[in-house]
């Protein structure tokens, strides 16, 4: 259909002629109200943005001398992040003389990882970095 025929059909129906794809040969256009078209586009963009945001990296910091109740709070938060579909970076931070006993801290971190109930896999093995060990887990 030529441009003039399309404009005449749009005027006849009381809607707008909206260009969908200008790159295509011939260009693709649609007979639709422009406000409705813009609303649909915004809705689609919001949906894509929400889907993209769900893959964030969340961080949890624990210390090797933390009490069991403190670890349970961190554990619940970790499981909540995993259920939302986020990657979780778990760091165990060492201070002072704790840095001298790295195996003990690594065992504490592995113990914390074993407590996680949500099905997960370790995407980054525990490695020494900065003030302690860091690892990443994500939902299976």
Number of helices: 4
Number of strands: 6
For the biggest sheet, the summary is: 4 strands, mixed
CATH architecture descriptor of the largest domain: 2-Layer Sandwich
| Overall domain count | 2
Q: Which consecutive residue ranges, at least 5 long each, have pLDDT under 50?
A: none
Provide an overview of this structure.
- This protein has helices spanning 3-13, 34-53, 68-83, 102-115, and strands at 16-21, 28-32, 57-62, 87-93, 120-129, 132-139.
- A four-stranded mixed sheet has the order 3-4-6-5. It has a two-stranded antiparallel ribbon with strand order 1-2.
- 44% of the residues lie in helices and 30% in strands.
- A hairpin with a 2-residue loop joins strand 5 and strand 6.
- With 140 residues, it is α+β, with helices and mostly antiparallel strands.
- The protein is rod-shaped.
- The protein has two domains: 3-52, Roll (Ubiquitin-like (UB roll)), CATH 3.10.20.80; 57-139, Translation initiation factor 3 (IF-3), C-terminal domain (Translation Initiation Factor IF3, 2-Layer Sandwich), CATH 3.30.110.10.
In short:
With 140 residues, this protein is of the alpha+beta class.
Protein traits:
140 residues; alpha+beta; Ubiquitin-like (UB roll); four-stranded mixed β-sheet; 6 strands
What secondary-structure arrangement, pairings included, does this model have?
Layout: H1 3-13, E1 16-21, E2 28-32, H2 34-53, E3 57-62, H3 68-83, E4 87-93, H4 102-115, E5 120-129, E6 132-139
Parallel strand pairs: 3-4
Antiparallel strand pairs: 1-2, 4-6, 5-6
């Amino acid at each position: 259909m030529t441009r003039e025929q399309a404009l005449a059909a749009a005027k006849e129906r009381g809607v707008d002629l909206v260009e969908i794809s200008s790159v295509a040969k011939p260009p693709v256009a649609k007979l639709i109200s422009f406000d409705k078209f813009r609303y649909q586009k915004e809705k689609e963009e919001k949906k894509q943005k929400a889907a993209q945001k769900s893959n964030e990296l969340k961080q949890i910091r624990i210390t090797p001398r933390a009490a069991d109740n403190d670890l349970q709070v961190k554990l619940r938060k970790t499981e909540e992040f995993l259920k939302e579909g986020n990657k979780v970076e778990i760091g165990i931070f060492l201070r002072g003389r704790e840095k001298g006993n790295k195996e003990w801290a690594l065992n504490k971190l592995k113990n914390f990882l074993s407590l996680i109930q949500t099905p997960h896999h370790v995407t980054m093995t525990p490695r020494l970095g900065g003030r302690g060990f860091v690892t990443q887990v994500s939902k299976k």
